[in-house]
Model the fold of this input.
Amino acid sequence: MLRRVAIPVLILACVAAGCATTHDEAAQHSLNALNAVNTPSTTQAPQRQRRNPPWPCQTKSVNGQLEDVDPTPSLRPLDPMPAPGHMPAGSLMDKIYRSGHLIAGVDQNTRGFGERMNGDIKGFDIDLLKEVARAIFGDPNKIVFRSVTSSERLPATMDGEVDLVASLFSITCGATCGSPTTCQRWQYIDFSTQYYTAHQDVLVRKDSPITKVGDLNGRTVCATATSTSITNITNVAPHAKIYPVALRTDCLVALEEGTVDAITADNTILAGFQAQDKGNTRLLNVHHLEDEHYGMAINRSHPEFVRFVNGVLEQLRSNGRWNQLQQEDVVNVLGLPAQAAPTPEYRA
Amino acid sequence: MARAQPEASEVEPVATARRFHRLALSEPTRFRIAGAVLVAGVLMLGVVGLRSATDRHDAATELSSAATPRLAAADDVYVRLTDADAAASTAFLRGTLEPLDLRRRYDSDMQSASSELSAISTNQEVSTQAKQALVVLDQQLPVYAGLVESARSNNRLGFPVGAAYLRSASLVMRNQILPAITTIYEDAAHQTSARYRDGTAGSEVAAVALVAGVVFVLLLATEIALAFATHRVLNIGLAVATVLVVVIGTWLLTAFAQERSALATAREKGSDALQMLSTERILTLRSFSDDNLELVERGAASDYLPDFDRVQSQLVGANGLFDETANGVVGGIRRGYQQFLGDHQGMRADEDNGQYSQAVTLVSGTEAHDLASLDRHYETAITAARTQIAAKTRAARNALTGAGIGSLVLAILAAVAIVVGLRRRIQEFA
Done:
């Protein structure tokens, strides 16, 4: 009798209590997934190897101060230059020609030099690259633009992700500094001859009390990560707090939002910022900061391509195309004064 | 329950009764003590029944009227905000003239998110962490909206800084807003889980079963002893009490079983499914933002494709959310996601081949379309899950209605029956 009663009671109790354990697994699983996505993964940039044997970056002593020797000398142009569509066998140009398009690393957020325009990119860097494509293919549009941040320019060139980079990239081969990938770039990659000369300046809000570089000490200054501007500004205003950003235009957002007190960058970039924030900003017009020499960056295992690009640049300088493009992209868009095409320097 | 004749198999109760008989106390005293113990037992059964039925009823009520609605609201805020971010980046990718439907979608997402948030913030049950998260949201949502506005107006003017504003907006969304809403969502999810545990606790069931069982055995023993002592087969009072105890036990345990099964369904087909589906939906929307932003940046600052892969690894493959059986039935979602993933791979291939404008067309056309239809699948499935939650938590509550008070009343009746049944026998001894 007892057993007859006890067993059903136990079974009923078991069903009511849930003899199988209740599980929180599904709900917890989904929460874990959300949390996993919310925690950003940080990957360390790999250390870059310098070229071997080392490239001589030289400095000279001027009045006891160590100054950089001109970093711009590049390899002499190909002579004769191959005609479009007839690239020398085995050269990188030939490989590019066969692949159907030139892959160029650019910036797409810099007014006048490379900016996004309804799905297209335009600007001085872009137009010069199109001339390189024209010299290879006879067609300036056989080119793929890949946007690279300032800090991606050097690795993208070294890893061969792009055939060349033209993105307000300063040619450097100066005294050692904290970041050789910034101040001794020739140690890692090759450059074409310089195609534009800019200089570093500082941009502040119009109502800012900052009037000279020295005022930047103790202030927050925005600069693009790994740019030469950071190295230079810490030399003249050592107590400035640097606010590094990945993309150049992030600095304009930071200035407009009041996150930083000033931006330091090349005058070319700052002129573009002024054009986008009309009348609300002021340049300090600093002229004693470094001149910046823009060159196209190429992987160092392709000297023939460096020579080829230098040949293209020679042609553009001599046939007036360089002047025309400067007028259209830089002078008309940014209002910067026209400059003479920089004289190319070559290594012996 | 009382038996006409002792059976061979029931030696033990007889032996017990004999031992009971041999106790030094006089017979009336023994039965008085037995009566007191029995009355105490049935009353205890009534009180335990009332307590546990009320607790579970409260848990089910709390689930149906507070916890699960809050979970659903937190979940909806999450979906709305992720969707707003996707709409903003899609609109940006389309060019200087922003498509109106995307603008409206963004606006309505932001509005419903903020009104649901204010509903959540009035809730008293919110934990301290969730309160802090609500403060973060209060501060960061206007910042986000401001950045999106700046991105939008600069984009209209054709200024490249628009893209930088969009990037900043997306960073605020991903680094500040979404972690905060995750905290609120987690809080709601944990509270829901706790209520489910309260509502399905085994200890209460065990207590009821134990008390009912013990009282039942004692009643039987007393009846047997009484039968020996008085040579009467049946004591009506005790028999009625026995029947009532069985009724109480059966009623409570049946109600608990029904309630538990309703809550189990509410949980599995309702809130678990809701959480799984919403998480998948949130993650797909985020991956779509990744694709848009990847194209807006044209590959620079390449954290968007890695983010897509990271999100995807949470969805498919070993230990991915799609592995869970909770939504194994929703085949349309799997197919929709495969299609979406195919579009994404197409975009990547286009990008690798330098077909940038083709990639933009693919993402803002086919991929956006496929995502929208996947999103409709999710909407349907989530609505179904919400219906399940509402219906099953209500069923759980209804299963327990009256069980607590009913068992107490029956227990009192049983006590009365015991007193009445024993008093006459005790008087006879006197």
Remarks:
- DSSP finds eleven helices and no strands in chain B.
- The radius of gyration of chain B is 33 Å.
- The first helix of chain B runs from residue 11 to 22.
- Chain B touches chain A through 88 residues (CB under 8 Å).
